Amino acid sequence: MTLLDARPPAAVPDPGAALGPALADAVRGALPRPGHGDTAGRWRTLARWGRTDLVLARLAEGHADALAILAEAGCDPVGRALYGVWAARSAGTGAVLRDGALHGVVRFCSGAHRLDRALVVAGDVLVDVDVRDPRVRPVKGTWNPAGMVASDSVDVEFQGVPADRRVGPPAFYTARPGFWFGGGGVAAVWLGGAAGAVDDVRGLTGDDPHRLGHLGALHTALAVTDALLERTAHDIDADPAADHTTAVWTARAAAEQLVRTVLDRAPRIAGTTGLTREPGPGLRLSDLGVYVRQHHAERDLAALGARLTEEPA
After folding, report:
1. Between 147 and which of 205, 220, 286, 295 could a Cys-Cys bridge form, CB atoms 3.0 to 4.6 Å apart?
2. Mean pLDDT of the chain
3. Domain range summary for the chain, segments of one domain joined by +
């Protein structure tokens, strides 16, 4: 068993128009909780979402992550709300807690106009926020990407939003065991997105030996990352209380490297014709290139390297 299905799922035909129903279908069924015996099954579903449509996967993964966080804190979600997790602290931005309320601007708030609620990080506090509150204000013009356009990841300004639904104790969000389990789930989405990009170009090789060589290299890179993520998921389930940070960081780095390989080789298989006349490859590659930048490239690799020097050989 691997995380990737042998046969690719049907793609969402029009991400903008079909996202609402597709997202509702995706989040209707509860995923296995990470670290509770079927983390590989959870990541398999996340990879399938990524292989289907990366915008769908971004929003569905955020909802699934939020539900796992709430469960870990012993909190119930509000009704059938669609959730996200807004935790970015880019370039000095971020929510702050002042006088019992949230203030400030948070970047990259995926689904800002679509979600019902979000778990918002403010310093060392995590708050369950009603996104429909008029004091939660998406900032127009702050999401103009080359890919992931429909994820609607705009900046959001908080103007005195009551922080009366706090989730867990201070520092809970990053200190909990499941923090890096969620990070591995994002890597599973990247894996699925990479597989979807390979699906797009698989039939464009003809008998050209160079294109076939690129396809062989992509197949190998997919298989290696798939196997590493599956092993990491099983290791998490075998001992959920252990420190799996190094393993998850390694799996995320492998998935990021896989995506960079896909972004390099898939266009060489597609050629100009495939990228400009086929409806899928160019859009998917653009989405993939933006989404994978949740991995901070050399900065994350340097953190992994520093951690390795502190561990026993």
Report:
1. 286
2. 92
3. 1-75+171-313, 79-167
